[in-house]
Amino acid sequence: MYYNGCFYWAESQENKMTKEKVFGKLFEAAEIAKFTPEEQAGYEASLKYYRDLKNVIDTAVAEGESKGRLEGKIEGKIEGISKSLRRGKLTIEEIAEDFEVTIEFVLQIKLQQGL
């Protein structure tokens, strides 16, 4: 940046944060390099435990999200089928075909909702 006859280097906040992360990692690596073999083994075991736990949590979250999407999709189909049944313009077979479900599924919804 040029200001008042001089050039100034303006560092963005993003660059500052990136530099802080890089230097932080370098400092951490230097500290780890100073560990005794016992300390290093303990550190590695702790790191492995942390990564294993993080992977378990990440997997559980992903499975929960997947289950939630599936449940939402099923609920959407049930609502659509119910609406079609209330209208009464389509046959059970047509509704099953439109929503890509079995005729038995449509009949089950019809019975459960008293339609």
- Shape from CA axes? elongated
Task: Name the average pLDDT.
Answer: 84
How many angstroms does the end-to-end distance come to? Answer: 73 Å
The main β sheet shows up as:
2 strands, antiparallel
Rg over CA atoms, rounded to whole Å, is 30 Å
Q: Compute the number of helices.
A: 4
Order of secondary-structure elements: EEHHHH
Task: Give the oligomeric state.
Answer: single chain
Total beta strands? 2
Strand order of the largest sheet: 1-2
Could you list the spans in which at least 5 consecutive residues all have pLDDT below 50?
none
What's the structural blueprint in terms of helices and strands?
Layout: E1 2-3, E2 6-7, H1 13-33, H2 37-87, H3 92-98, H4 103-112
Antiparallel strand pairs: 1-2
Helix pairs in contact: 3-4
Structure keywords:
single chain, 115 residues, mainly alpha, 77% helix
Question: What does this entry show, briefly?
Answer:
With 115 residues, the chain is mainly alpha-helical.
Please, could you describe this protein's structure?
By secondary structure, this protein is mainly alpha-helical. The protein has helices spanning 13-33, 37-87, 92-98, 103-112; strands at residues 2-3, 6-7. Strands 1-2 form a two-stranded antiparallel sheet. The N and C termini lie far apart (73 Å). The model has no long low-confidence stretch (mean pLDDT 84).
